[in-house]
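>> Question from a student workshop board

For tomorrow's exercise we were told to take the sequence and the ligand below, predict the bound structure, and bring the output to class. My setup keeps failing. Could a helper post the expected result so I can at least see what it should look like? The ligand is thymidine-5'-phosphate.
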Amino acid sequence: MRDGKFITIEGIEGAGKSTAIQGLQTLFDHHDINYITTREPGGTQVAEAIRNLLLQHHHECIDPITELLLIFAARRQHVQNVIMPALQQGTWVLCDRFTDATYAYQGSGRGLPRTIIDQLKQMVHCMLHPDLTLLLDVDVATGLNRAGKRSAPDRIEQQADHFFERVRQGYLQCAASEPDHFGIINATESPQQVMIQIKTVLQPMLDLHCA
Ligand code: TMP
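>> Workshop helper replied:
Here is what the output should look like for this input. Compare the format with yours to find the bug.
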């Protein structure tokens, strides 16, 4: 049983997730919605430690299956300790990435079979599915150009452009397979235009909350 809404934000590097999250926080405040903002990998002390392990550069190569297992280990901590308790209290959860990122990055990007991800998902959060996923879709050149202006690339950001091309296509496949749960946002537009699109997608949920 849960009352809070679970909303996830997805997209490749430089899609504008952080700006969109700020806009969503303002929107939720305006509608008196009780919410928390969190992120993946991360969101708890242990999951944030796993995040550092995943994003730092190492002399040792991290095997794709190891990467996948670390991501789901972090996710289990996050789901059990933060996401589910919040939703059960009626608090909305705004989460920067979730399992669709795993299908896109580890599935389409790294080439791991979808069935392995399905199995881990079943084990880690079989009862939990986002109510809405906002996919900020941007072409790879624009996204990486924006991301490159921010900071030195981490272990995942340093991948070649064709990796992110596969990730983007992976996200679009996720969206195509579940059109009722996804809102695809054209994230090449200005932050103001992106926010207008997001509000349009969210409006039915906000109307229900206010009813
Ligand atoms: P970000 O949250 O700052 O965008 O960075 C997190 C990085 O982790 C990003 O490069 C995507 C990557 N990632 C995966 O590869 N798989 C996942 O399941 C998640 C949640 C993130």
